Records
---
Amino acid sequence: MKNWFRGAAAANLLVSPIGLALAQSTQALPIPLVGAEYDVPGAHEMPDPGLTYKVVFDVAAAAPDVGDMNPRLVGAARFVNTLAKHGVPQEHRQIAVVLHRDATEVILNNAAFRARHDGHDNPNIALIQSLKKAGVDIRQCGQALIGREIDPKTVLPEIQVDYWALTTIVKLQLDGYVKVGG
């Protein structure tokens, strides 16, 4: 819920049927760190539980601030949560994230991230762990690791290092994935 729900209004909402439904749907989301998209009354093109969603998120940009989670990772998480919220089963959510270029350093463990960013913690670790737990396939461009002189031992265990982002994205598209971003 937004911060504008405060005090008695928030308390009343939480005990109302709508508030209970919101609380239950939030608890059931596969990635608890972010929400799902808002419902839009009368909207067309709703998520279809009968479809299999094969989507690859091309993540090349860094967050605007070193202390922020990567917005494209957050977008991928919101997509997973929105599909789940609308009854799309996990086996119909085939989601991949391919990290490269300026987004590369999100894959660093906290010690390596701190060393590169003046002691700042990596704000993406919990989100990456939650994405992986929700079944999202997270890939890193090996060429970007080399170009940024990143020791593979400092890469989070949830990340699969591939040869090159371009070959990964093309392969996934040939396998029927739709590319988002880039």
---
Amino acid sequence: MFKVNCSELSGVMKLALAEAISGGLGGSGVALLDGDYVAIDTLSGPEIGAVRIRSLVGSYLSSRSDASVYHLEEKGDSIIVHSSAPVSAREKRVVESLPPGLLQCPDCGYLTTSEEKYEDHLRMHDLMRGIAR
């Protein structure tokens, strides 16, 4: 299994990246979110290498309208996706564009009007990451 570190990306961007990688693998593998990583698992054929994953990630990032914000770094056998726009700044823009009374999870996009449900939802993310709130 190969992992791409995308801790500097928003939850929506991580999902989109995983979808792009899975689509580019053409059934030979699948990419799933694993916390701050996109984990790529081989389903059939030879093991999927860093060169192929780097190509897919690079292709996806370069196709975005904000491509200049992202760059890739390779450390040994791992790939790290960096963003010059902090996640919190992008999430703030999303929250500001929501109608009044609507709350959206910055990690996965979950929407609710209940502050209690919103806090419970955030706690669930923290529990999955192993952080106590």
